[in-house]
User: Which sequence fits this backbone?
């Protein structure tokens, strides 16, 4: 038996000898290859000692040969339904279609029947992005499949490797698998729950698989009205894992080959975002910073020394113009909700957009830290002549099929196309019910619903701080924004995450303030 055969067998039985350490909670990349070499040598020597002892004990006429691992696919592709949690906006829908066709091409190359591929946005099932509303449909539509695989439009799927993984599990059992994430500490995006490392949830951009048996069990729970009925949907993966655990007591199985970053042995991994062109420049966008007098001294200087130090079209909207922010536009302020304040910003910004012929409006809080360059790159994939709203999607009572709705959360930053801004400020279209109504829920939720504009969710926008997200989640993308200055140094956050990519921008010479 050769070392090559030994390594091959180890790989077959799940022992990884590359740069991925499966002993860690998040299977993070191992940098010290020396340790792996020592471990492999020890395993090899131990194995050979046992192997030679066993061989010596055999009769002389018994031949020994290395174990040959079959490469045949035992799970047929047509026994799998792949559900792409897609969005209907042109760029996103096109990406989902591309993934679907790529899956079909791979199945053709294997000379196998095609797997079933579902694009969720084409089903017109309300709240399909939260997964639970899809379960009953999937159970009824695909009664003969063995596995369901859920992923995003930017998930790369290597079909043969995925089928190989699924084929090693029994679809007759309650099982689901993915790249397991966990909270390092209680976090605001999970309502400060105390699960921590004991509770695992899948990295949804890597995809996760579920046996038909488990999906059917969950569907029955939904039919019986036993789904979770939380007010807010924030992190779909975490909330769905909570539903699975509470309903069936089934925990997520960690599979490292449903990868966070690309590697040769990955069955899936998230594709990093690439801009569609280079046509969007800082001259195409207006930045509106929402602030108030009590934060002029401690927040605005951070903004001006980080992302706002560049030559941008930027306006500060506050309840007062004092010596610390003389250029502020005056808008009404409230201690909560801020609907009247944000609506006033939209009204003033609409005039600026028209006069200066800007294509986009970005509304951010005075404690939002983000990359201007990455935001501009994202906008190259969307048509500013259409009614477009982009940000991080939350949901309010999505289990309520009649009154629940989704919205773009304000702290992560919200980007609106100029035509949409002009439409929103038309009389009676988006008027606030009260000055203290939550601005993002009304203006970027209910109002968009009334206008039949579905907000575009980008996972690169973040409502919380970097520490609130698992390392693996952040490693799989290039974030656009973070929010809040609570327990972090915001200047360090900008320096660590965004400064390098933004340095191509020209610096601001003098304060640029766009007059009405």
Assistant:
């Amino acid at each position: 038996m050769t070392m090559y055969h030994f390594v091959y067998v180890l790989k077959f039985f799940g022992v990884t000898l590359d740069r991925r350490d499966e002993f860690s909670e998040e299977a993070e990349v191992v940098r010290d290859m020396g340790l792996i070499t020592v471990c492999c040598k020890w395993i090899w020597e131990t194995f050979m000692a046992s192997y030679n002892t066993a061989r010596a004990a055999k009769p002389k006429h018994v031949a020994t040969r290395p174990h040959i691992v079959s490469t045949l696919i035992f799970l047929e592709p047509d026994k799998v339904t792949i559900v792409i949690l897609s969005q209907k906006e042109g760029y996103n829908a096109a990406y989902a279609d591309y993934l679907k066709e790529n899956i079909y091409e791979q199945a053709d190359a294997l000379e196998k029947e095609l797997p079933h591929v579902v694009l969720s946005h084409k089903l017109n099932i309300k709240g399909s992005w939260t997964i639970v509303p899809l379960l009953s449909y999937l159970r009824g539509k695909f009664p003969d499949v063995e596995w369901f695989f859920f992923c995003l439009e930017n998930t790369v799927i290597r079909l043969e490797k995925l089928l190989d993984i699924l084929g090693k599990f029994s679809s007759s059992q309650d099982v689901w698998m993915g790249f397991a994430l966990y909270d390092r500490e209680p976090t605001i995006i999970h309502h400060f729950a105390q699960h921590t490392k004991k509770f695992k949830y899948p990295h949804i951009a890597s995809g996760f698989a579920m046996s038909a048996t488990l999906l059917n069990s969950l569907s029955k729970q939904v039919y019986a009205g036993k789904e979770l009925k939380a007010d807010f949907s924030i992190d779909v993966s975490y909330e769905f894992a909570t539903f699975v655990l509470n309903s069936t007591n089934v925990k997520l199985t960690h599979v490292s080959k449903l990868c966070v970053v690309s590697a040769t042995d990955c069955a899936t991994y998230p594709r990093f975002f690439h801009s569609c062109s280079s046509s969007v420049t800082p001259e195409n966008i207006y930045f509106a910073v929402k602030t108030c007098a009590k934060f002029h001294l401690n927040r605005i200087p951070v903004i001006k020394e980080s992302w706002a130090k560049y030559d941008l079209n930027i306006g500060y909207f506050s309840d007062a113009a004092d010596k610390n922010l003389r250029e502020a536009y005056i808008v009404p302020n409230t201690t909560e909700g801020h609907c009247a304040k944000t609506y006033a910003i939209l009204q003033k910004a609409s005039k600026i957009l028209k006069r200066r012929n800007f294509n986009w409006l970005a509304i951010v809080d005075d404690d939002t830290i983000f990359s201007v360059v990455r935001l501009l790159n994202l906008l190259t994939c969307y048509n500013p002549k259409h009614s477009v709203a982009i940000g991080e999607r939350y949901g309010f009572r999505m289990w309520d099929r009649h009154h629940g709705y989704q919205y773009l959360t304000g702290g992560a930053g919200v980007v609106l196309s100029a035509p949409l801004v002009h439409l929103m400020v038309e009389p009676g279209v988006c008027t606030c019910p009260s000055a203290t109504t939550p601005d993002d829920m009304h203006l970027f939720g209910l109002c968009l619903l009334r206008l039949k504009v579905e907000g575009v969710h980008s996972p690169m926008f973040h409502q919380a701080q970097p520490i609130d997200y698992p390392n693996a989640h952040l490693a799989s993308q290039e974030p656009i924004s973070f929010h809040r200055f609570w327990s972090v140094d915001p200047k360090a956050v900008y320096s660590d995450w965004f400064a390098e990519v933004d340095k191509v921008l020209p610096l601001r010479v003098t304060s640029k303030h766009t007059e009405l």
The mean pLDDT is 87. The domain at 77-270 is CATH 3.90.550.50 (Spore Coat Polysaccharide Biosynthesis Protein SpsA; Chain A). Residues 196 and 371 are 30 Å apart (CA to CA).
